[in-house]
Design a protein that fits this description.
Elements lengths: L5 H8 L7 H15 L6 H21 L9 H16 L7 H24 L3 H26 L11 H4 L5 H21 L4 H20 L2 H18 L3 H21 L1 H15 L11 H19 L9 H10 L8 H30 L3 H16 L9 H27 L1
Helix pairs in contact: 2-3, 2-6, 3-5, 4-5, 4-15, 5-17, 6-8, 8-9, 8-10, 10-11, 10-16, 11-12, 13-15, 15-16, 15-17, 16-17
Length: 415
């Protein structure tokens, strides 16, 4: 009689690949530190990355160093993009700025490679989403504790009340992604306490998004949720009317409730003036971004294929205006930095994920569609190719497509 060990049985069932308690705790700590800008002190920052690597090693020991090949798809793509950025040092107009980009791309690649390997099945996919949410819930509590309840309504959440490192757009985008994750978990969980918790999380994180005054963040949250809601429901006409009424209510609240208007309403008001004849009412931020795009496209034409080197927009803009900053537009940033080749390398998997998601029919494919379509638009108002939270979404998009395809395969086998 053949004796089957517990480990062999676990391999057969696939449970050997599930995250253990230690890996979950390490991921939670990692997410808390990465998204809390007060914790990004050198020793803490590198400490949690080392801890993440330890978590990966323990995970690989558990699986006898067995790695699912499909987890390497994201790693292969992103590292190809990182290598192109490294090679751009040979033609960069400022190697110091390019090295800043290369360093953060390498760190992002390292951490997401660890996460991609561990995000190898449905259980781990959901756990990583939950840990992302729990970590940012802890960070919201940290922010409330820092400011106090009254401090939350004293102005936009960001540099003015949290410190120099707390950029409003960064806070808003992280919380917007968390709000969408909460919505996805709400839709994929059965009735119970957890479903109520996720519903409250959706509301809470969107309130934080509004408090940051970030237009990009508000768009990301509402657009992701709207796409998933519409595609996930069978009653398309009813859902269309619900979305329309909800949108009108949100717009009314943004422009008529003083607290909300002072946080984000006035910034949306100014943005809409771009499309009107009243150019005098456009705020300085919008005007500057419009000029940034014009200058970026002119520099792109000077070196269209390989660009001027990663992160070179900062150098070129600084030499022109005296202000060394990025373009606030991923497309422009990539075209100026690493040209058409870099743009294609970076965005190719976006369209691959979208194409495969449209073929599969499951909530995982809807997850992928929602994030890809939203990010393709949001990249017009942010630079996201090096942002950990944005690339984590793409990593999860790769996994969601695979889960959707596996789900379709199982359905076919059952028929």
């Amino acid at each position: 009689m053949e004796v089957i060990s517990k480990q062999d049985e676990a391999f057969k069932k696939g449970t050997i690949y599930n995250l253990g308690y230690i890996q979950k705790l390490i991921l939670l700590i990692f997410f808390i530190v990465v998204f809390n800008l007060d914790f990004q002190i050198q020793i803490i920052w590198w400490g949690v990355h080392g801890l993440l690597f330890v978590g990966l090693l323990l995970y690989l020991l558990k699986t006898n160093f067995s790695i699912k090949k499909d987890t390497l798809l994201f790693i292969g793509w992103y590292n190809s993009f990182v290598l192109l950025s490294i090679f751009s040092l040979f033609w960069s107009v400022n190697n110091d700025f390019t090295m800043i980009d290369v360093n953060r791309l390498i760190v992002t690649s390292f951490s997401l490679s660890c996460i991609s390997i561990m995000c190898c099945n449905k259980s781990n996919f959901h756990w990583i989403l939950k840990l992302y949410l729990y970590a940012n819930l802890i960070n919201v509590i940290y922010i409330i504790n820092t400011l106090g309840i009254s401090g939350l309504t004293s102005g936009r959440l960001g540099v003015d009340n949290l410190g120099d490192s707390w950029n409003s757009n960064y806070i808003g985008i992280v919380m917007a992604i968390t709000a969408f994750i909460a919505y996805f978990l709400y839709e994929t969980h059965k009735k119970g306490i957890s479903k109520t918790f996720f519903l409250l999380a959706i509301i809470g994180f969107n309130i934080i998004v509004i408090m940051t005054g970030s237009r990009t963040a508000l768009f990301i949250s509402l657009f992701m949720i709207t796409i998933f809601f519409y595609l996930n429901t069978r009653k398309k006409i009813a859902s269309f009317f619900f979305i329309t009424i909800s949108s009108l209510f949100i717009l009314y609240s943004v422009f008529n409730i003083p607290f909300i208007y002072e946080s984000i309403g006035y910034r949306l008001d100014s943005f809409f003036n771009v499309f009107s004849n009243d150019q005098s009412s456009i705020d300085g931020s919008t005007m500057i971004r419009r000029d940034m795009i014009s200058l970026g496209l002119a520099w792109f034409k000077e070196s269209p294929f390989l660009g001027h080197g990663a992160n070179s927009y900062r150098e070129l803009y600084g030499l022109t205006t005296g202000w060394y900053t990025y373009s606030h537009n991923t497309y422009v940033e990539l075209l100026v930095g690493i040209g058409i080749i870099g743009l294609v390398v970076y965005f190719y998997p976006y369209f691959t994920i979208l194409k495969k998601s449209l073929r599969a029919k499951s909530q995982y494919s809807l997850f992928a569609i929602s994030i890809i379509v939203t990010l393709l638009i949001a990249h017009f108002t942010m630079v996201g190719y090096f942002r950990f939270e944005v690339q984590l979404l793409i990593c999860l998009g790769f996994r969601a497509v695979i889960l959707a395809q596996n789900n379709d395969l199982r359905k076919g086998l059952e028929m």
